[in-house]
Design brief:
The complex is a heterotrimer.
Chain A lengths: L1 E2 L5 E8 H11 L4 E4 L6 H10 L6 E4 L3 H13 L4 E5 L1 H17 L3 E9 L5 E5 L4 H6 L8 E3 L4 H18 L2 E7 H5 L1 E6 L43 E3 L13 H16 L2 H4 L2 E4 L6 E5 L2 H15 L4 E6 L1 E3 L3 H10 L2 E6 L5 H9 L4 E6 L8 H12 L1
Chain B lengths: L17 E5 L9 H5 L5 E7 L5 E5 L10 H5 L5 E5 L3 E3 L1
Chain C lengths: L1 E3 L26 H14 L7 E5 L14 E4 L5 H11 L4 E7 H7 L1 H10 L3 E7 L34 H8 L3 E6 L3 H13 L3 E7 L6 H4 L5 H11 E3 L16 E8 L5 H15 L1
Parallel strand pairs in C: 2-3, 2-4, 4-5, 5-7, 6-7, 8-9
Antiparallel strand pairs in C: 6-9
Helix pairs in contact in C: 1-6, 3-4, 4-5
The chains are: A alpha/beta, B alpha+beta, C alpha/beta.
Chain lengths: ~375, ~90, ~280
């Protein structure tokens, strides 16, 4: 265990997922956290309150989650990598201003350590019921990036990835974890992320007076100015043109919304990450994410021992959804088995992409606990009959 | 109707002859400048701009002190004063 | 301060996005005059406009961000203050100004108003009070006087209004003032003072809304409303903020009510940084 002079932790640690998430953010260069306590994400805020001042960053506890989301956007526009964390009820509160972040194209990271809902639900127990909300929670048409870690080590690594993606694509990126991953303790190897690994937002090349805030480059992402450098830009949540000025026409709406969505869609191969085990010859593919994927891994191994050609497709990126991979697997497999800690959310995406060429079977768990491998194995066996 | 007293420092302040410039495209004919002018140098005219707003005019520019109250109250930034030798002081 | 004018342009044009003028505010709306006072206050305070970050919310007043040529952010309804907090704490060298309306700051944004004042976060808040929600058609708001008509109080308002200086002073704002747009020079001076003063500064600016509030309450044209300010306003610097409520009729107390000092949020945080890094 060791730290560097500037306070970044390096070495092997035995920590919870929440703590690993906070350390991953610090390793990624996050120097602003605004949040509100909520089980089971509170420990992220607590860790940030202790560690950010050590590295010269700002921790501020806001009066609610709406303020937290906005403070994060403001800090990002001041040029600082910023993050907030929450769970279901707070996630709902953040939705309007998450949309503002999408519209203003503000890099930042929002962590949701999911718990069972709806409403107050089971504050201390696991759920995976916010997956669709992550995609569609704010009003209007937009595209998101959401990463789903399945271990404290992975939450450390994916938080760094989340910051990189948010800076590269100028969009708030979601880290959708769950209460089990957030509260479990495992070995996490922490490292400082070097400049070659970290991505910073593209800066303007044109001088003030010629720079417009929403004139995109070839990859549909505009270079970003920050406040205080003399660019004198204007940005608004209203539909706007390349100058950043409100443009209340259908033509402007068409240009803007297409670009906001396409900038993620056309770059999805760069964004999507998957982890596969035994899918090369699988007749049944178990498609899972988060803590459920660890249980599913055991079920798939058990199925293989019983002679079933089962495979595991672990979604690390859930949004944008890996449509091509599902379509590809649907051509080869008989069925998809989708265990999730909800009553069916990602299963509908799998079913949509399978296009009827493979059966899609949901193995639901309402929340408050994780699946038993037996329930997934049972579904695998039924799927091959 | 006069909304204002005479400026206390009228003697001290340099009241070199001033010019009133009106931006006809921005004016919305609210009449604030006319009402605020302490000397009555402005009045509403019968001229309309392209949007149909009645415009003010400098009815007696010789009365203009260059005090800048019209400039300050105009909500549309449509009127300002400069002294005739090109300098303005706030 | 002398500016030599070499073209026929209005001297404040360099602070305006002239490519977007004329602005959308109605004839006789006071918001433009308040913006003019703000712009002249920036010059009066000798501030570098490159370091000013202007944040606004939703409403007629919120549109000001789109017309002033500084780094400006037109955010969501009620959330200008936390956005501004993030800007200020992210880069303390920014001079952060929030320009928004009575509904945006005190209704939906009320929670953020009281907490930002409590924190004494170093920023200047210009609250345009036209006693209704103008942009959406003149509905009642948190400052609409009792018995006033609005599009959602057709029988007269029965929702008792805030006394905004009282609210922010009670929460800990270190500079609280109220002027009408008629009080041009005092307003300009107040804004200039607030811009350079550390801490949470709040300036309420009473403005006419000729198209809606004034029309629905039979207050006449814009000039008639300004005339009513002349008759009703009492300048009382140092007045007790608890006693400056505004009714449909009766006096409107204006002036600088609070001007005191206490450590800002940034000051407190500096101490924490020091402590945390010493420990390491």
């Amino acid at each position: 265990m060791s730290t560097t002079e500037d306070g970044i932790l390096q070495g092997e640690f035995f920590v919870t997922g929440d703590e690993a998430c906070a350390e991953g953010a610090i390793a990624a260069g996050c120097r602003f956290f605004a949040g509100y306590p909520i089980t089971p994400a509170t420990e992220i805020a607590e860790t940030m309150s202790r560690r950010l001042p050590e590295v010269g960053g700002v921790y501020i506890q806001m009066e609610d989650e709406l303020a937290s989301m906005n403070a994060v956007l403001g800090a990002s526009w001041a040029g600082v990598k910023a993050m907030t964390s929450t769970s279901g009820p707070g996630f709902s509160l953040m939705m309007e201003n998450f949309g503002l972040g999408v519209m203003l194209e503000t890099p930042c990271v929002v962590v949701n350590i999911q718990r069972a809902g709806p409403s107050t639900g089971l504050p201390t127990l696991v759920g995976q019921g916010d997956m669709m909300q992550a995609r569609w929670g704010s009003h209007g048409q937009y595209e998101v990036i959401a990463l789903v870690p399945s271990s404290p080590q992975e939450i450390f690594d994916l938080t760094i990835t989340a910051f990189n993606l948010s800076e590269k694509y100028r969009i708030p990126v979601l880290v959708l974890s769950d209460e089990v991953v957030g509260h479990m303790s495992e070995k996490v190897v922490m490292r400082r992320a070097g400049p070659e690994e970290l991505v910073a937002r593209r800066r303007p090349t044109k001088p003030p007076g010629q720079y417009w805030p929403y004139e995109p480059d070839g990859d549909l992402v505009p270079p970003m100015a920050i406040a205080g450098e003399g660019y004198r830009f204007h940005v608004t949540g209203l539909t706007h043109d390349e100058r950043g000025y409100p443009a209340m026409t259908a033509a402007a709406q068409d240009r803007l919304v297409r670009r906001l969505v396409d900038k993620i869609r056309v770059n999805r191969n760069d964004i999507i990450q998957l982890d596969e085990m035994g899918t090369e010859d699988a007749e049944v593919v178990v498609c899972a994410y988060g803590i459920t994927s660890r249980v599913a891994r055991r079920a798939v191994q058990q199925a293989r021992h019983q002679g079933i050609r089962a495979g595991l497709l672990r979604l690390i990126t859930v949004w944008p959804f890996p449509e091509e991979r599902i379509r590809g697997l649907a051509a080869q497999a008989k069925a998809f088995v989708v265990p999730e800690i909800n009553y069916g959310q990602m299963v509908f995406e799998v079913e949509r992409c399978a296009g009827g060429r493979a059966k899609t079977v949901l193995v639901p768990h309402m929340g408050g606990g994780v699946h038993h491998p037996q329930s997934i194995l049972q579904a695998i066996r039924e799927a091959v009959q | 109707m006069k909304l204002w007293r005479k400026p206390f420092d009228q003697e001290a302040k340099a009241t070199s002859p001033a010019r009133v410039i009106i931006n006809k495209e921005w004016c919305k004919g609210c009449e604030y400048c006319v009402v605020f002018c302490p000397t009555g140098a402005l009045a509403m005219s019968t001229e309309m701009n392209v949007k149909g707003y009645l415009l003010p005019k400098a009815s007696d520019e010789s009365q203009c002190l260059g005090c800048g109250l019209c400039e300050a109250i105009c909500p549309d930034f449509a009127i300002f004063v400069i002294s005739k030798d090109g300098e303005r002081s706030t | 301060m002398t500016n030599v004018v070499t073209t026929d342009g209005n001297p404040v044009d360099s602070y305006l996005r002239v490519d977007r003028m004329p602005h959308i505010w109605c004839a006789g709306c006071g918001i433009g005059a308040a913006v003019g006072c703000f712009i002249r206050a920036i010059a009066r305070a000798g501030l570098n406009p490159d370091k000013i970050a202007l944040v606004s919310g939703i409403g007629c007043s919120g549109r000001a961000a789109g017309y002033v040529r500084v780094d400006s952010f037109h955010t969501t309804h009620g959330r200008a203050l936390p956005f501004a907090t993030g800007l200020k704490m992210g880069n303390p060298e920014l001079n952060v100004v929030v320009f928004s309306g009575d509904g945006d700051l005190a209704a939906i944004g009320g929670n953020h108003l009281i907490h930002s004042a409590r924190r004494n976060i170093d920023m200047t808040v210009i609250c345009i009070n036209n006693f209704n929600y103008g942009m959406t058609g003149g509905q009642l708001g948190p400052t609409t006087p009792l018995e006033a008509r609005s599009s959602t109080s057709p029988y007269g308002n029965f929702d008792p209004p805030f006394n905004l200086p009282h609210v922010v002073a009670a929460c800990g704002a270190t500079y609280v003032a109220r002027w009408t747009v008629m009080h041009l020079r005092q307003l300009e001076r107040s804004i200039a003072e607030a811009l350079v003063k550390p801490g949470f500064s709040f300036i309420e600016v009473i403005t006419p809304c000729p198209t809606l509030y004034a029309r629905m309450n039979k207050l006449g044209q814009g000039v008639d409303v300004l005339h009513s300010y002349q008759q009703r306003c009492i300048v009382q610097n140092g007045a007790d903020p608890r006693e400056v409520e505004i009714g449909l009729s009766g006096p409107i107390v204006v002036g600088k009510f609070v001007d005191m000092s206490r450590p800002t949020f940034g000051d407190h945080y500096q101490k924490i940084l020091h402590k945390a890094q010493k420990k390491r």
